[in-house]
Design brief:
697 residues; alpha+beta; nine-stranded mixed sheet; seven-stranded mixed sheet; 23 helices; globular; binds adenosine-5'-diphosphate; binds magnesium ion
Length: 697
Amino acid sequence: MSTVTERFGSMVFGDAVMQKRLPKETYRAMQRTIKNGKRLDLEVANVVANAMKNWAIEQGATHFTHWFQPMTGITAEKHDSFISPVGDGKVIMEFSGKELVKGESDASSFPSGGLRATFEARGYTAWDPTSYAFIKNNTLCIPTAFCSYGGEALDKKTPLLRSMERINKQVLRVLKLFGNADVTSVKTTVGAEQEYFLISRELFDRRKDLIYTGRTLFGAMAPKGQELDDHYFGSIKPRVAAFMSEVDEELWKLGVLAKTEHNEAAPAQHELAPIFTTTNIAADHNQLTMEVLRNVARKHDLVCLLHEKPFAGVNGSGKHNNWSISTDTGVNLLEPGETPYENAQFLLFLCAIMKAVDDYQDLLRISVASAGNDHRLGAHEAPPAIVSIFLGDELNEILHAIETETAYGGKEKELLRVGVHILPKFPKDTTDRNRTSPLAFTGNKFEFRMVGSGSSISDANVVMNTAVAEVLKGFADLLEQSDDFETALHNLIRDTIRAHKRILFNGNGYDEGWVTEAKARGLLNLPTTPDALSHFLDEKNIRLFSENKIFSETEMRSRYEIMQENYCKLINIEALTMVDMARKEILPAVSGYIKTLSETVVAMGQACAAADSSVECELIETLSKKNASAWEKIKTLENAITCARAINDHTEQAMYHKDNVIPAMNALRTVVDEMETLTAASAWPMPTYGDLLFGVQ
Ligand code: ADP
Ligand code: MG
């Protein structure tokens, strides 16, 4: 039996393997590529590819693939085997530097929002050497970016890598002003906590809504929900424990730093938290985590639901995107420091984040927008759709003292002068206990809790990185030109707090009053995806992305189309599934139950007179009425679906789905859920909430 430390990363072509298997010169060239993004020349790439192939074959691999993340939000692969014919019906195993570095891919089946004209259907994938290659299902996977031949990004990795470069550049400028000469690069770091539900596979297979859409489109609440708080951090059931331990094993082999597994607040809900790493790697690892969760669940006769809101009335699932900035010298720049200078630097970064989040609230909201997440934001332990920052009392008081130029501190109250005074230590614990904030400072990082459980974390981090880079650029421009650095710094921090303190909110985000207050503060409240998307192409957002070379305006327009289209497609599938289930399963089941009741009445030698109050007669009357009402509601929904389809413009179509299709879905659901509570369990055609939520022992 090998140890965990031996198994960890055993399926990864990581640093240790490279050091062992690559000639010294090649290894050094690789290091330069990884650290400074220096291009590998083909000769070196050939040597690396060959070593990679030999290693992969020893681990049982037969194929390789460029592993990429198109706009579908999930990963894509196209497998090629290593075999190459040598005549005589024989083959050898080959893998060239060219195949490693660049792949051709038919882009035509991936969403491109009109970017890829049909005559140019090819795209290419390009190796991201900073994210190590790994083996999964006997295939060597090479993490890559995916672009069109015109150079436009067709994926989620390209903009993320671009945004990391931008923030690196601007943070370095700022660090230089503070005299940090030894830092040569900074990277943003992310730890993405992943929430999910685990249900029995046998029950899952009996619900079309789960199969087609990943969430329940019908279902009355079970008598017991999460009100007792007896699941959160509760002891883990044996079947779930076995699943979790296999998930850990699989992830460790892939070099994913899976660290914590526990029960979440809702019944059947769980969480996996990794140790943080560089953002692009964290994004890759989160994709792998979702895949491993799904696959391992199947092996245990379970299904892992990654939908943001699989059950109405029960907590939804999200990802908590813990984000910070680290230097190559190992310093976390969001860690308040020990000296006045370190503290001033920390405060400047904090202010940059405040301003970035305030200026680009809409983009942050858009970065997490999806039809699924719309059900989650704003209810049941999910942060509201209004973006705000929670800093905690201590930091708030410090900022208040700076802003108002008033005294701060215990006995010896002093005017706080940035760059001169040491900030008081603030204990970490007091900062992270507000669970209702969308973006909470938790001692040395920001936790962004709006990300949906099923989506890629890339979009949110692209916005964080780019918006903060943009603000820091302005800060650096100003500070570099000042004659008196300390005064300029002090004023900049004070003025930024004054201008952007509206984004700070320490109260309860679920409170109705917050909606009113946020409005008075001029903060955006964008409850749905179409509402949010209507801001994507605002001039300031186009300027942000195009000036920072994340997306050209054309790329933004294409992404906008893709997002609107995805939203419409999803709602359309859900609506069709509802119609199908209601008509083919639910209404017939209720009719059947009415028949059973009628037979009972007859068997008892009775007949239902008007206003007959026997159990059977009352049920027959109520259910008949409700079934008839459900029938009408199906027709209304079908009609809405047809009208939605007739709209060509994606923006209009998305709005129509939101305003007409979703309300028609809700109306149908309401009456069906009422019928469920009145129908005998034996007559109901599918597993109930109770079965699903409490079915795994
Ligand atoms: P807890 O809230 O359970 O005490 P932590 O606050 O330590 O856990 O971490 C929560 C998540 O934040 C983990 O995934 C962790 O790796 C991540 N994290 C911790 N420090 C950083 C950092 N500097 N940058 C990004 N993520 C971080
Ligand atoms: Mg968390």
